[in-house]
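pinging the channel bc i need a second pair of eyes. not urgent but kinda urgent?? the chain im working w is below, pasted from the shared doc
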Amino acid sequence: MSAFYKDENGTIYHTYSSYARGIEEWIGTLMILDRAPKGRNENGTMHFVKRHDEYETKASGHSCCG
Protein backbone atom coordinates (compact mmCIF):
# COMPACT_ATOMS: atom_id res chain seq x y z
CA MET A 1 0.00 0.00 0.00
CA SER A 2 1.28 3.43 -0.84
CA ALA A 3 0.06 6.92 0.04
CA PHE A 4 0.62 10.04 -2.01
CA TYR A 5 0.03 13.76 -1.46
CA LYS A 6 -0.64 16.28 -4.21
CA ASP A 7 0.01 19.91 -3.29
CA GLU A 8 -1.68 23.00 -4.72
CA ASN A 9 0.97 23.26 -7.48
CA GLY A 10 0.24 19.73 -8.68
CA THR A 11 3.46 18.24 -7.32
CA ILE A 12 2.93 14.68 -6.12
CA TYR A 13 4.82 13.36 -3.11
CA HIS A 14 5.17 9.71 -2.16
CA THR A 15 4.58 9.93 1.59
CA TYR A 16 4.23 6.32 2.74
CA SER A 17 4.70 2.73 1.57
CA SER A 18 4.17 -0.56 3.30
CA TYR A 19 5.02 -3.98 1.93
CA ALA A 20 4.24 -7.62 2.77
CA ARG A 21 2.80 -7.75 6.28
CA GLY A 22 2.76 -4.00 6.73
CA ILE A 23 -0.85 -3.56 5.64
CA GLU A 24 -2.27 -5.89 8.27
CA GLU A 25 -3.30 -2.91 10.39
CA TRP A 26 -6.13 -2.51 7.89
CA ILE A 27 -7.46 -6.01 8.64
CA GLY A 28 -9.48 -5.77 11.85
CA THR A 29 -9.37 -9.46 12.73
CA LEU A 30 -5.59 -9.57 12.70
CA MET A 31 -5.39 -6.47 14.88
CA ILE A 32 -7.55 -8.18 17.51
CA LEU A 33 -5.51 -11.38 17.36
CA ASP A 34 -2.29 -9.39 17.76
CA ARG A 35 -3.54 -8.18 21.14
CA ALA A 36 -4.55 -11.64 22.37
CA PRO A 37 -2.23 -13.52 24.79
CA LYS A 38 -1.02 -15.99 22.15
CA GLY A 39 -1.39 -13.55 19.29
CA ARG A 40 -1.93 -15.38 16.04
CA ASN A 41 -0.22 -18.45 17.45
CA GLU A 42 2.19 -18.40 14.52
CA ASN A 43 5.64 -19.90 14.29
CA GLY A 44 6.72 -17.79 11.38
CA THR A 45 5.48 -15.58 8.60
CA MET A 46 4.24 -18.31 6.28
CA HIS A 47 4.35 -21.38 8.53
CA PHE A 48 0.79 -22.31 7.62
CA VAL A 49 1.66 -22.78 3.94
CA LYS A 50 2.57 -26.39 3.22
CA ARG A 51 3.46 -28.15 0.02
CA HIS A 52 1.47 -31.24 -0.80
CA ASP A 53 4.20 -33.55 0.52
CA GLU A 54 4.74 -31.70 3.82
CA TYR A 55 1.51 -32.75 5.54
CA GLU A 56 1.56 -35.39 8.25
CA THR A 57 0.74 -38.85 7.00
CA LYS A 58 -2.01 -40.51 8.96
CA ALA A 59 -3.20 -44.06 8.70
CA SER A 60 -6.32 -43.94 6.61
CA GLY A 61 -9.41 -45.53 8.06
CA HIS A 62 -12.54 -46.41 6.22
CA SER A 63 -13.08 -44.61 2.97
CA CYS A 64 -16.16 -44.23 0.85
CA CYS A 65 -14.00 -44.13 -2.26
CA GLY A 66 -12.32 -47.48 -2.01
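so The mean pLDDT is 76. and Residues 2-34 form one domain. — does that match what u expected or am i reading it wrong
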